[in-house]
Amino acid sequence: QVQLVESGGGLVQSGDSVKLSCLISGRSANSLIVSWFRRAPGKGREFIGRIGGSGTSDYNDDLRREGRFAISRDNAKSTVYLQVNDLRPEDTAKYYCAADIYAGAYSYWGQGTQVTVSS
């Protein structure tokens, strides 16, 4: 059974950076495509981006243009990361990782980690 556990969230200041982690267990990490999502208060789920087993990533077009989000992975540590730079209050959300062996599918989800950005 694949399990995903996010960590690294918390209360941060505007302009700070945060690096969230998604620890994968139950399956070889490099066999999974891992995506990051977020859900802000009162809003729907937003796709941030994803990374394949070999490290190729792609992002939500709008967020890619901002240039503040970066997804990486360390398969030796069974961990996928989401770095968010120059945090803004509108980045306040619960951040989730999701995984599957197929692109665009999300069979496995973590419990999420809350990021709260104060102005």
Task: Describe the model.
This protein has 119 residues and is mainly β. The protein is built from one helix and eleven strands; from the N terminus they run ββββββαβββββ. Strands 2, 4, 5, 6, 9, 10 and 11 form a seven-stranded mixed sheet that branches. It is globular and about 40 Å long. The termini are far apart. The relative contact order is 0.32. The model has no long low-confidence stretch (mean pLDDT 96).
Class based on secondary structure composition and strand pairing: mainly beta
Low-confidence stretches: none
Terminal CA distance reads 40 Å
H/E element order: EEEEEEHEEEEE
Radius of gyration of CA atoms, rounded to a whole number: 13 Å
List keywords for this structure.
119 residues; globular; four-stranded antiparallel beta sheet; mainly beta
Q: What's this, in brief?
A:
This protein is mainly beta and 119 residues long.
Break the fold down into its secondary structure elements and pairings.
Layout: E1 3-7, E2 10-13, E3 18-25, E4 33-39, E5 45-51, E6 57-59, H1 61-66, E7 69-74, E8 79-84, E9 93-100, E10 108-109, E11 113-118
